[in-house]
């Protein structure tokens, strides 16, 4: 067939795959040539997108980690625990612990339950290896059914039988390596504790991505045998039926997960049939509600007292997710601004393509393809940036992320979604704008036929700097609040106080303690010593007390309690407004005296607190003093009523106030005395101020992350501003040359070119300030004590942004102003 006839027969046929392949190849070639032709703009675009994408990937890595706690357990969404809400006289307490009798009743009376298991935390215990003591934490007593409910991966042993016998223990792979040199060597071997010897019956792989951060599980029957020792059958039975003794974390699974509503109803019925009659019989005025919590909800929904580990923050997950989106949006805006600003350079190309028959959709496809290509290059660079920044990011977040995390299918889909999102969003408006040029207009002139895109560029610059300013102001507010929290007077002195964790009390320890304390005070660098059961900064116990009201009647009240020794209040600098502190020379103070804080006296309605009667568990006492209010918990919370009691026996902490001079020598002295006092227990200590400030770790983390990403947003915004300023200077090169010929100075030209950009940043400041004020005011509502949002803070943040933006633009403006006007006019 003749070529001409073949050509005419092919006309009108729909193009095939080969045609589209050639067209795509052509578009890629053109896109690559444009990248190489405009190296500076391409570099700005790619670096800006890479910075934004890398920040976004890091944040979503963290967010994904926070949202997937417990997911490593098989069927994690069908594992639950029972939590408790108790109301004592208007006081609502939320406990992650559940009543002591609950598990037995669930086994016997609720057929929907497949398996139920109790978990109880243990104090730190000393484990011996080759005559060397090691103090271990994260130890738990667990029922034999625990591993059938929470299915840890076993490396050795049988999870169904490992904890059935007394004095058996299941240890983590790390402890197996530490004490036995490996998993295989550990199974069946004895592990020597201070008072008991346990047999290793299993080794498990610990889950770091869980609220259950455990080093070992000890058999629950061991704990129960110790609790029953020396008690008669009646006493044991009474203790087993104490419904307000919240002793265990209770986990369970169901035969059929769909039966959860039925189980919840039966759980409520169980409280009415068992707990309510028991409380009435024992004259306890309280109400109780037991509810179900999936373990997958624990990490981000944890408002409970006495939980196993610190929780995450759902609000911070939302905040960081918004920051990631904002950073990505700023990077996209950069691309859109630069692409539309350079429209005049591409206008003839668009016009020629339309003349030879290109449709608007084809031209849009070309520009979108260029956008995706640039985004792909930015993504590749972003992954390299993520790899380089991961060590620092891990240090900031306290996690152990690796680039291999992106091999996870979910993260792979996230990366693909980011590529398409950025490529399409960043390229959509430039593609739509450029493809709309009319051939006649653009071929008559090398200028863009429309000036209407200038308002959009200005708007996008304002959006960029508004987002950047909100993050900068937010960072400044978080920093100010954190400094306020750390420096506010708490009503006690936490500085230079060393807290040493005491071994479990026994008769020998108790008898030697006064001698050791006397020896410590002989060191001139140790100013005071005392023992306590509770310290500021930790969750205190709550006790049901029978107190005398102002009219002389007795009422039940639940209050926070703190157990201290005779001189502990003086050591911590806690002042009294009335009465006296505990005194060793008054025998009745050992059990018959209490001190209430001002908030407690007010809450109880006491106008004259001294001498009021308080029944504490099994004995009566009288109020001998009123402590001035002090913040014994973080400043997230107001000061709550508190009852201070003398330690009945033993203590958890030895406190020593030391001189700031020769601190290292003093600590060495303390260690030497500790070895003589408790040679079987290694000395574990911390400073009280560090311990108290740990309550603000979430805010510390937020400040650091906000600071870094606020800096990134301003960097990305300035990159775009730099590109726009460069383009503006190029477009106004002739004007600048004429002005110089007519006598304009370099400073005048710099001001001329910088003025418009400065006005845009000022507009962004006006928009960002109320937005930041509203957002940070809401954030500060989480604190009982708040820093004032000073106008100077907003002014300083705005001024800093303005200076950075003007400096960025002025660099390009000065560069243009210094060009020889003759060359500028000749090139035109």
TrEMBL record:
<dbReference type="InterPro" id="IPR025857">
    <property type="entry name" value="MacB_PCD"/>
</dbReference>
<feature type="transmembrane region" description="Helical">
    <location>
        <begin position="455"/>
        <end position="479"/>
    </location>
</feature>
<feature type="transmembrane region" description="Helical">
    <location>
        <begin position="43"/>
        <end position="63"/>
    </location>
</feature>
<feature type="transmembrane region" description="Helical">
    <location>
        <begin position="413"/>
        <end position="434"/>
    </location>
</feature>
<dbReference type="GO" id="GO:0005886">
    <property type="term" value="C:plasma membrane"/>
</dbReference>
<keyword id="KW-1003">Cell membrane</keyword>
<dbReference type="GO" id="GO:0022857">
    <property type="term" value="F:transmembrane transporter activity"/>
</dbReference>
<dbReference type="InterPro" id="IPR003838">
    <property type="entry name" value="ABC3_permease_C"/>
</dbReference>
<feature type="domain" description="ABC3 transporter permease C-terminal">
    <location>
        <begin position="322"/>
        <end position="436"/>
    </location>
</feature>
<dbReference type="Pfam" id="PF02687">
    <property type="entry name" value="FtsX"/>
</dbReference>
<keyword id="KW-0812">Transmembrane</keyword>
<feature type="transmembrane region" description="Helical">
    <location>
        <begin position="316"/>
        <end position="338"/>
    </location>
</feature>
<keyword id="KW-1133">Transmembrane helix</keyword>
<feature type="transmembrane region" description="Helical">
    <location>
        <begin position="372"/>
        <end position="393"/>
    </location>
</feature>
<dbReference type="InterPro" id="IPR050250">
    <property type="entry name" value="Macrolide_Exporter_MacB"/>
</dbReference>
<feature type="domain" description="ABC3 transporter permease C-terminal">
    <location>
        <begin position="709"/>
        <end position="816"/>
    </location>
</feature>
<feature type="transmembrane region" description="Helical">
    <location>
        <begin position="749"/>
        <end position="772"/>
    </location>
</feature>
<feature type="domain" description="MacB-like periplasmic core">
    <location>
        <begin position="524"/>
        <end position="651"/>
    </location>
</feature>
<feature type="domain" description="MacB-like periplasmic core">
    <location>
        <begin position="42"/>
        <end position="269"/>
    </location>
</feature>
<protein>
    <submittedName>
        <fullName>FtsX-like permease family protein</fullName>
    </submittedName>
</protein>
<keyword id="KW-0472">Membrane</keyword>
<dbReference type="Pfam" id="PF12704">
    <property type="entry name" value="MacB_PCD"/>
</dbReference>
<feature type="transmembrane region" description="Helical">
    <location>
        <begin position="705"/>
        <end position="728"/>
    </location>
</feature>
<feature type="transmembrane region" description="Helical">
    <location>
        <begin position="792"/>
        <end position="814"/>
    </location>
</feature>
């Amino acid at each position: 067939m003749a070529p001409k006839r073949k050509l005419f027969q092919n006309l009108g046929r729909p193009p095939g795959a080969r045609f589209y392949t050639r067209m795509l190849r052509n578009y890629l070639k053109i896109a690559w040539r444009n990248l190489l032709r405009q190296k500076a703009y391409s570099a700005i675009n790619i670096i800006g997108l890479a910075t934004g994408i890398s920040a976004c990937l890091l944040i979503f890595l963290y967010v994904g980690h926070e949202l997937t706690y417990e997911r490593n357990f098989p069927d994690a969404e069908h594992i639950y625990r029972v939590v408790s809400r108790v109301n004592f006289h208007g006081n609502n307490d939320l406990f992650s612990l559940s009543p002591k009798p609950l598990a037995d009743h669930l086994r016997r009376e609720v057929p929907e339950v497949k398996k139920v298991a109790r978990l109880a935390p243990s104090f730190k215990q000393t484990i011996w290896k080759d005559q060397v003591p090691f103090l271990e934490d994260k130890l738990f007593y667990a029922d034999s059914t625990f591993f059938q409910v929470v299915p840890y991966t076993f490396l050795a042993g049988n999870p169904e039988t490992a904890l059935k016998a007394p004095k058996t223990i299941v240890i983590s792979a790390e402890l197996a390596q530490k004490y036995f040199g490996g998993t295989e060597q550990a199974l069946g071997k004895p592990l020597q504790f201070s008072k008991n010897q346990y047999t290793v019956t299993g080794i498990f792989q610990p889950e770091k991505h869980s609220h259950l951060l455990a080093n070992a599980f000890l058999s629950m029957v061991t704990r129960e045998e110790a609790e029953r020792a020396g008690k008669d059958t009646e006493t044991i039975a009474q203790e087993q039926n104490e419904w307000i003794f919240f002793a265990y974390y209770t986990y369970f699974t169901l035969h059929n997960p769909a039966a959860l509503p039925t189980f919840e109803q039966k759980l409520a019925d169980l409280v009415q049939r068992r707990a309510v009659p028991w409380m009435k019989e024992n004259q306890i005025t309280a109400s109780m509600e037991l509810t179900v919590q999936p373990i997958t909800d624990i990490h981000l929904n944890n408002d409970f007292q006495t939980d196993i580990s610190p929780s995450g923050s759902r609000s911070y997950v939302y905040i960081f997710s918004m920051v990631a989106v904002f950073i990505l949006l700023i990077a996209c805006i950069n691309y859109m601004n630069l692409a539309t600003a350079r429209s005049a350079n591409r206008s003839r190309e668009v016009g020629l393509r339309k003349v030879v028959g290109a449709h608007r959709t084809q031209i849009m496809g070309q520009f979108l393809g260029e956008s995706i290509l640039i985004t792909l290059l930015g993504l590749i660079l972003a992954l390299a940036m993520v790899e380089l920044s991961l060590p620092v990011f891990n240090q900031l977040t306290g996690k152990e992320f690796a680039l291999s995390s992106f091999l996870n299918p979910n993260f792979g889909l996230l990366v693909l979604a980011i590529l398409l999102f950025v490529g399409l969003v960043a390229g959509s408006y430039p593609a739509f704008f450029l493809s709309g040029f009319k051939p006649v207009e653009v071929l008559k002139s090398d200028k863009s036929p429309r000036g209407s895109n200038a308002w959009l560029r200005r708007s996008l610059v304002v959006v960029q700097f508004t987002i950047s300013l909100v993050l900068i102001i937010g960072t400044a507010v978080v920093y100010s609040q954190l400094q306020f929290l750390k420096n506010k007077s708490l009503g006690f002195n936490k500085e230079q106080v060393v807290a040493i964790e005491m071994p479990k009390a026994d008769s020998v320890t108790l008898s030697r303690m006064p001698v050791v304390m006397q020896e410590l005070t002989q060191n001139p660098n140790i100013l005071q010593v005392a023992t306590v059961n509770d310290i500021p900064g930790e969750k205190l116990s709550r006790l049901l007390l029978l107190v005398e009201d102002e009219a002389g009647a007795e009422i039940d009240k639940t209050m926070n309690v703190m157990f201290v020794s005779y001189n502990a209040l003086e050591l911590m600098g806690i002042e009294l407004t009335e009465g006296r502190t505990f005194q060793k020379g008054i025998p009745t103070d050992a059990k018959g005296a209490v001190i209430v804080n001002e908030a407690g006296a007010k809450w109880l309605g006491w106008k004259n607190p001294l001498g009021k009667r308080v029944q504490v568990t099994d004995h009566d006492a009288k109020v001998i003093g009123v402590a001035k209010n002090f913040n014994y918990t973080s400043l997230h919370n107001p000061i709550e009523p508190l009852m201070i009691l003398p330690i009945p026996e033993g203590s958890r902490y030895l406190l020593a106030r030391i001189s700031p001079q020769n601190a290292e020598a003093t600590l060495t002295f303390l260690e030497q005395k500790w070895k003589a006092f408790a040679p079987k227990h290694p000395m574990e200590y911390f400073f009280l101020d560090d311990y108290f400030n740990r309550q603000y770790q979430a805010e510390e983390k937020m400040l650091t992350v906000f600071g870094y990403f606020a800096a990134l947003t301003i960097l990305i915004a300035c990159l775009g501003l730099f590109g726009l300023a460069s383009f503006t200077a190029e477009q106004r090169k002739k004007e600048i040359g004429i002005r110089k010929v007519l006598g304009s100075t370099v400073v005048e030209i710099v001001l001329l070119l910088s003025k418009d950009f400065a006005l845009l940043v000022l507009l962004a400041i006006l928009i960002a300030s109320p937005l930041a004020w509203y957002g940070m005011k809401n954030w500060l509502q989480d604190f009982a004590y708040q820093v004032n949002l000073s106008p100077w803070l907003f002014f300083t943040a705005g001024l800093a942004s303005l200076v950075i933006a003007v400096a960025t633009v002025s660099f390009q403006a000065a560069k243009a102003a210094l060009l020889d006007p003759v060359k500028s006019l000749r090139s035109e």
